[in-house]
Fold each of these.
Amino acid sequence: MADTTSQTFTGPHGPKPTKAFSRRNIFLYGTLLVVTLYYALPLYIMIVTSLKGMPEIRLGNIFAPPLEVTFEPWVKAWSEACTGLTCDGLSTGFWNSVRITIPSVILSIIIASVNGYALANWKFKGANVFFTILIFGAFIPYQVMLYPIVIMLREIGLYGSLTGLVIVHTVFGMPILTLLFRNYFSSLPEELFKAARVDGAGFWGIYFRIMVPMSLPIFTVAMILQVTGIWNDFLFGVVYTGPDSYPMTVSLNNIVNSTQGVKEYNVNMAATIITGLVPLTIYFVSGKLFVRGIAAGAVKG
């Protein structure tokens, strides 16, 4: 008796294999390679230049690796380069940037997350109007507000201080962060919110026990955006602070654009890399969460 469970296959099954060197793959990987070189080549030049001495730099071959590696430009950029009347390098500006960035990031994220949570889950009269006005503020050019904010900070006695700059960064970060948090909270299952309300949880109980634990990706997105924007800011730093409280970017500008003495390109390159290390490190450490936060609702309407 024939085995009725056996099956006869007439041909291969599954997706058709793709060619390794198809036109599509060549175009795709070729484009990616060109873009990678476009961004990686300047970084490579900065690194190798920062590790050379000035006699080797004067030879003119900027692409060649250093014949003799030296870290003296890094030491000088950090603690000896002149940034005006003082010659203490980037160290003072670094700690000023830390004192500006940490409170600005914390305050703006806390306020924006509560705003986004309230606008997404606790509808109140005029919520849409308030949200529209708030988002409209994100598209007003910063330059338009420079002088009015100078007058406001002067009147409350905070002009030229780190505290005044922290307030400015916190306020300017709220519109876009509120949009991110509102859209993310709106993408979470509404049943969780309703179940918590039935169980008797209030505004803050739902926020701290349900929303915050489920929102690590969007908090990471907000942190990366704020750290990058605040740490790399130059305009607000040079306008709203004084020489004793300049952030790191202003100190870097003073080093690179100094017109006194010999132009030390290795020191300039080292100072530039040191200034960018903080946002780069944060992005590489938490990059996966950043992508998850964007994909999970950060840009949904």
Note: Residues 265-298 form the longest helix (34 residues).
Amino acid sequence: MNPRHGEVWLVDMGMAAKTRPAVVLMADDLDAPRSLVIHVPITRQNRGSELEVSLDGLFFLEADSIANVQGIGSLPSVRFEKRLGILPEADLKRIKAALVKACAL
């Protein structure tokens, strides 16, 4: 199973971090030469930033989950361990809007 755009996966963030959920942002139809998946990590620590997007009412996440757009990164697809669910379109749009703001796109 390959992570797809808009899905939430449980991801092994590596030695310095822990396994946590993340939203897949990588487009599905790319023929990318590397097996990296662009993602935004999900946390429960809300610091009140405009670059944090609340993800409320999702049965596959704990209450008070936050998509931390500042934490955007890429990891090899083998680090994506388990698909948790699909993000509602409204939440995905809010994450993309925060990304546009963060990167001045």
Note: The chain has a mean pLDDT of 92.
